[in-house]
Task: structure prediction
Amino acid sequence: MGKAKVEKLCPMRIISRVPVRPPTDKNKLVSFRLIEHCLQIKLSGFIFIISLYKRGKSEGEEVMAGVKKGDKVKVRYVGKLQDGTVFDSSEGKEPLAFKVGSGDVIDGFDEAMLGMAVGETKEVHIPIAKAYGERNEEMMMDVPVEQIPDDLGPELGMRLEVGAPDGGVLRVVVVELDEKHMLLDANPPLAGKDLDFSLELVEISA
Result:
């Protein structure tokens, strides 16, 4: 049997020689030695060179980096409640664009993006604490009927904007209405709920 032709895969500067143990089977181990990041083994007339290099980027190959804090991303998503009801989706719209770590989205959604690569899809469960938090009864506002503007014409389920003490705006929904008062709920609509998302990363930019 002739010797195998071995292409030179690594630099051939010898780092160290390793003592050879006596062969224990019919394959005669002649020698082996560590040559830089390669292990060269001569076995029964064949020379094997095993590269110990960590695989890097080949010529013409692009290494895809994962999302990190501070990256700007575009993502397609479908959001569902625990009973499978879809409460929001990017289907038929432009992908959601935001800066990771900026606080533009809920914590669980933000954290789910970390490490994702372009084209990657992911199913993620976001608990209440990482979504919109628990419901807060202090966010319920009871408005006497005499304080309701005459031209408002409130109805159950109507969404309104009211002025907050700090000068901001609160988005509220009418949850109770009778001849004496109107009860407004300023909690986020998804407060107190676990959420599930299907994600697809479309783009990363610095």
About this structure: The domain at 139-185 is CATH 2.40.10.330 (Thrombin, subunit H). DSSP finds one helix and 13 strands in the chain.
